[in-house]
Structures are given as C-alpha cells and as structure tokens.
Amino acid sequence: MYLAPNLNHLPHLSTAEFAHRIVQGDRLALSRAITLIESQVPAHRTQSLELLDKIYNQRTPSFRIGLTGIPGVGKSTFIEALGKEVIESGNKLAVLAIDPSSTQSKGSILGDKTRMGSLSRAPEAFIRPSPSAGTLGGIAARTRETMLLCEAAGFDTIIIETVGVGQSETEALFLTDVFLMLAMPGTGDELQGIKRGIMEAADLIVINKADGSNESLAKQAKKQLEIALHLFPAKESEWRVKVLLASGLHGLGVKECWKRLKAFREHTSSNGFFEANRITQNLRAFERLSEMGLYDLVRSVLGDDQLLSDIQAQLENGSLNEYAGALQILEPLRERFGIPKS
Amino acid sequence: MYLAPNLNHLPHLSTAEFAHRIVQGDRLALSRAITLIESQVPAHRTQSLELLDKIYNQRTPSFRIGLTGIPGVGKSTFIEALGKEVIESGNKLAVLAIDPSSTQSKGSILGDKTRMGSLSRAPEAFIRPSPSAGTLGGIAARTRETMLLCEAAGFDTIIIETVGVGQSETEALFLTDVFLMLAMPGTGDELQGIKRGIMEAADLIVINKADGSNESLAKQAKKQLEIALHLFPAKESEWRVKVLLASGLHGLGVKECWKRLKAFREHTSSNGFFEANRITQNLRAFERLSEMGLYDLVRSVLGDDQLLSDIQAQLENGSLNEYAGALQILEPLRERFGIPKS
Questions:
Q1: How close B122 gets to chain A, by Cα (Å)?
Q2: Contacts of B191 in chain A (CB under 8 A)
Q3: Are A87 and A123 in contact (CB under 8 A)?
Q4: Whether residue B5 has pLDDT greater than 80
Q5: I need a labelling partner for A184 at 20 to 30 A (CA). Which of A130, A293, B251, B295 fits?
Q6: CA distance A204 to chain B (A)
Q7: Do A120 and A80 touch, CB atoms closer than 8 A?
Q8: Chain B residues within 8 A of A234 when measuring between CB atoms
Q9: CA A64, chain centre distance (Å)
Q10: What phi, psi does B127 have (nearest 5°)?
Q11: Which residue in A44, A297, A342 is closest to B330 by CB distance?
Q12: Average pLDDT of chain A to the nearest whole number
C-alpha cells in the first residue's frame, strides 16, 4: 500500500533547514518529517535517511520505555496516568505505538486523542498512532525513526506501546531501554492472558486494576510472581524484575512505577548495560535498514514488486522451499550484474 | 577467512548425481556436500543452493533437538548417553554444533571423536564439528544446511549443541523443534551458571550430575524450579516445561529424557505447533539466505569486501550512526544501477 504524502503545497525545505526546524521544536516540521519517513515511495527513503543522519547528533538524551498489555488490561488509562506523572516531573513525553493491525482500521490502538484525551492536550506531550502500512519489520523501523525525530524535537521520554498479542513485543524490545508489562489478576494462579515470552522479557510487571474487590487477588498474584522470579537467574542487565500493584484509573502505584523505571535507568547506566544495549540495537537497526533498502533496490532493478511476496506465500503453503526461493531472488541479480556462476 | 575446498581430485558430479549419492547413504558424498556448503567461495554458494533445492524433498522426516549447557555441565557425556539411547531405539542420529569460538581453535567443542568416542564409532551416528568460519549468522545458516543434508542421508534425529555462553542459543532455537537445557546444582538457590534467556527458552531442563552427594541438592533445585515454572503461563507450544534429574556419567535419567522428548513431539504434532513452527523457521531461513546472498552480490558489484565490516566497526565505536551507514551501502548501489534520487 503506497502512501505518497502530499508535500507539494508546502514550501520546499532543504534537509538542513528541515532538521533545524525540528530541533527548534517546530511541531509542524516534526509532523511533516514523520509523514515523510512513513512514506513508502522509494525516493522518499533516501531523503528520510539523509534527514535522520542530519538530526542524529542533535537529539536530546532520552529514556525509552516499552509498554505492553492485552486489550482490556487498562493500557490507555495507565499510560495517561503515567504520562501525567512523567510530565509533572519536568519531562517531555512522546507516546508512539507498534500495531500492525492498524492497517485494516481494526487496530486496538485507535483514536488516541480520545483514548488519552487529557494527556494529548498537554503541550509537553506528543502522541502519534502506529504507522499504518507494510510489514511488522517496516512498521517497527518507521517507529524507531519517529522516535529519533521526537528526540531531536526535544522529547526526553518516549513510551512505545504494543498490543501484546503478536510479535510486536520483540520489535519493541529492540527499540527500548526498559520493558514494562501490564497485567491484571485472573481467577486462578495465573495472571490473565499473558504470553509467556512477554513475561520473560519484562523488567517491570505492573498488576493493574489492583483496586476494590480485586486488591487481595492482585496482592496474592504479586507474591507468587516474586517467588517465581527470584528462582530465575538475573537478566543480562543484572536487574531484578520488580512486580508492582497499580490502578491506572485511581492513579495508584503510578508514582512508584515512575520511580522504579528511573531506578532501572540508574542501575543499567552504572553497570554499562544501558549503553551496551543501545549499541546492540543500533547495529540491529543498521542491518534491518540495509536489508530493507537492498530489497527495495532489487525490486527497482528487477522491476518486480510481486516477486518477494509471491515467494513468501509459496513458502508458507509449502509449494516452494527456502533454497529455491533464495535462488529466485539471487540468480536474476547475478545474471543481471554479469557475475559468473563459477 | 576463505575456505576453498579442494574438490578437484574427485570426479565431477552433476547436482543430480550428487544428490542421488547422498540420498543413497554414501557417507563420502555427504561429507563432500557439507564441505561444499561450508565454502565461502561465492561461486560455490550457487551450487550449494541448487544441491539443497534438489535434496529438499528427498529428506527423511526428522526430529531436531537443540541442546545447550555451559562448559563443565557434562554435555559431551550426556549427549553420548542420550545418543546411545536414541540409536538403541532404532534411530539414526546426527550430532552437529554451533560454536563461533571454534574459529580460533579455542572452541569448547573440540575433537569430537575423543569427546564422544563410543558414539562416534556407531554406524548409525554421524558427528560433525561446528563450521569454523564467518559470522554467527553464517555459521548457523551452514549448520542448518548440514542438518538438511543429513536428513537427506537418512538421519531422522538431529542434535544441535551450543556452548551456552553467547548468542548461539537463539540461532539453535530457530533450527530445532525442541530445546533442552543442561544444568547442574549450585550451592545456593540458583542453578549454576545459567543465562536467564536460555532457561526461559527451554522446553526441557535436565539437572545433570544429580548423583552421589549432589543428589539431594539436585532434587531440591528441581522442586523449586517446578514451582516457579508452574506460575508462568504455558508457552506458545502449550507444552508445560519439564524438569528432570540425570547423570550422564552413570546413564541415569537418560531413558526418561528421550521419553519426554518424544512426548513433546507427540504433543506439538497433535496441536499443530510442530508444523507451524517449522514454517516460521523456513521463512526466517529464507530471509537470512536472501540477505546474506544480497550482501555477497553487493560486495561483488561494488568490489569492496571491507565496506560492511568497516561500517560495523564504526557503528560499534559510535563514530558513525546507522542511517549514515545505510546510506553508505545503498547510495553507491543506487547510483550504480541508475535509480533516480527523486
């Protein structure tokens, strides 16, 4: 799905001027830049990379928080409460999202201005819906670029939310410094609806809706979780996962949550993990960028937009194996570039 | 590091003839094929892909077991005992390895014929050391291809071992149906030397060296682990992780281990996870193949072998950002192929 942004009615800006305006805090320039990087028009890609290279070293040092939770767990209400706390502490907050389902307008992350109404009106906050086209990898890459643009615009705290039902969490992990999982008490031993992989990745587990009649159930769940987590070795960050109780609706536990997030940043800055993790993430981002860029070039060179998706469909239904698939990509290129077979 | 195999002294085989001999069980043909796919000579890559495409649908249905454990946990002894059990049950077993450190001859997986002496002499077994050149991704890709060749040669059970101290486990996860982690009792609550990420990935945790004076410590560790694991939601495979006690040295717990592995296969075949997981893995393998193939082509086209590693070094020390890095790869190609900038 091509998204060709209409940038024609606005005055043409050089990359340097564009970057300058973003860094000055010009919200319109920021929005235009995000629209540019979300464009799937190949020519816009080069412009985007140049703009990102330009603003890269002009960014505000930031703290990137991944936040996930299944629909129903109270994510928007919690983010709104946490967001207010972040801003009241003197920060500038951007809230972004990775939601592949938003392509079909059936996404769970809709109408942000309604969902987080009060937060969206705060001048120190900036809320942007998930990019809405392409593969999960493409969406994640565009979200990362949006995050960098926000940092250039002066936002020092970024929340990246995911819906908690697909592979988006893995992508969010690669974009963020700390990972927070929202859960809620269920009727049995287990917390409700949580994917095992997400729980294992979390640095902070917040049991939301821990109010009223649910309070004792939530306390019990917290206790059991803490026992379980204690038996597992520490994570690479050497941070011991914390379990908190909260109620986004009543604003309970939110201050404590922000305090713990900052403690995580302190801890991992001291032991070097914060910086090392960022370098690993940058390397991975480079790999993904090159990969996607190469695929775009290949499609331009071969003049075949469908080749890749046809191959993937055939791989999924088993009518083609991955080696034959790779040959279908690489052989035409080898011939085209006159590289001898042996 | 270029590994240019000397295939000249052997009669030239067509891909079809080569494939035929492998499927017939000709061990020499199998070894030649593995040497071919491990070659880093670009021309050999095309031949390799064609051979793999040829044998792909002639493979024996198989069971792929990932096995990890830190040095000292008794991995070789355990694999030898498990291997014997597998063969005595009427199977043909190949044991492969992913060990990036083997490049420097300091790898932990050395001299397989000594390590697993008795197993290596069994005609139903085939043991091959880790490929020894290139990046971790390259090593994993070559191991996967070796695995497919072994399946074409009639091996129905594959063990892929990793050393347990790096990123090799993630790669092994993407190659296998089930993941077994070997641990041993420590002095405190925690099992000795285990990386958190590995424990979370395991489908089966085997506490080895659970004999003699260690037996009660091992039993206690098993109990605590089981409590902890029970509190976590089931994995995507809907398989509840099992903890077993074993002693590879005394052959204890090995029959039970093989029984549980087969139970896992049964369970995941019934609920469709086994097949779905394989498809996901095939897709990922295709992506990695295309990616690596594209990079090889790019290097041939640009005539610059160093570009990629220079960029990665600069990314690691922070002197270059990932967007500038991507531009350095993509821009020369865009110009070379005459693709307009906008």
A1: 31
A2: 233
A3: no
A4: no
A5: A130
A6: 15
A7: no
A8: 196
A9: 9
A10: -120, 130
A11: A297
A12: 86
* Residues paired with residue A243 on neighbouring β-strands, in sequence order: A205
The whole-angstrom separation of Cα A232 and Cα A177 is: 21
- Nearest-angstrom CA–CA distance, B19 and B24: 9
Report helix, strand or coil for B99: coil
Pick the closest to residue A228 from B200, B135, B51 (CA basis): B200
Nearest CA in chain A to B241: A196
Query: Tens digits of per-residue pLDDT, B192-231?
Result: 656 777 778 899 999 999 988 888 889 988 988 888 788 7
DSSP string for B158-191:
EEEEE-SSSSHHHHHHTT-SEEEEEE---SSSSP
* DSSP SS3 for B151: helix
Ramachandran category for residue A72: left, alpha or beta (phi over 0 → left; psi -120 to 50 → alpha): left
- Give me the DSSP letters along B216-235: HHHHHHHHHHHHHHHHSPPP
Buried b (16+ CB within 10 A) or exposed e, B99-118: bbbbeeeebbbeebeebbee
Whether residue B159 contacts residue B79, with contact meaning beta carbons closer than 8 Å, is answered with yes
Picking from A49, A322, A325, the nearest residue to B326 by CB comes out as A49
Is residue B286 within 8 A of residue B115, CB to CB? The reply is: no
Q: DSSP for A168-212, please give it.
A: HHHHHHTT-SEEEEEE---SSSSPTT--HHHHHH-SEEEE---SG
Q: Which residues 6+ apart lie within 8 Å of A212 measured at CB?
A: none
Conformation bin of residue B234: beta by default, left when phi > 0, alpha when psi is -120 to 50: beta
Q: Which residues of A touch B326 (CB under 8 A)?
A: 49, 286, 289-290, 293
Q: Helix or strand or coil: residue A65? A: strand
A53-103 pLDDT tens trace: 999 999 999 999 999 988 888 999 999 999 999 999 999 999 999 988 765
CB-nearest to B286 from A43, A230, A325 is: A325
Q: Please say whether the beta carbons of A38 and A1 come within 8 A.
A: no
Is B323 in contact with A52 (Cβ distance < 8 A)?
yes
Amino acid B105 reads: S
Q: Tokens standing for A207?
A: 């049991």
Query: Is residue B36 within 8 Å of residue B44, measured between CB atoms?
Result: yes
Alpha carbon B297 to chain centroid distance?
Answer: 26
CA-nearest of B298, B300, B306 to B333 is B298
Of the candidates A141, A327, A331, A319, which has an alpha carbon nearest to the alpha carbon of residue B286?
Answer: A327
Structure confidence by residue, pLDDT tens digits, A119-153? 989 999 999 988 876 788 889 999 999 999 999 99
Note the residue count of chain B.
342
Cross-chain residue pair B196–A234, CB shorter than 8 Å: yes
Q: Which residues of A touch B43 (CB under 8 A)?
A: 340-342
Query: Are the Cβ atoms of B286 and A326 closer than 8 angstroms?
Result: yes
Please compute Rg for chain A using Cα positions.
22
The C-alpha atoms of residue A133 and residue A101 are separated, in whole angstroms, by: 9
Contacts A331 to B, Cβ<8 Å: 46
Residue B64 three-state SS: strand
The half-sphere exposure of A268 on its side-chain side, counting CA atoms within 13 A, is: 26
Closest residue, chain B, to A339 (C-alpha): B300
Alpha carbon distance B160, A78 (integer Å): 44
Q: Domains of chain A (ranges plus CATH)?
A: 1-58 (1.20.5.170), 59-270 (3.40.50.300), 279-337 (no CATH)
Q: Which of A142, A199, A232 to mutate: most B Cβ within 10 Å?
A: A232
Cα separation, B121 vs A139, whole angstroms: 52
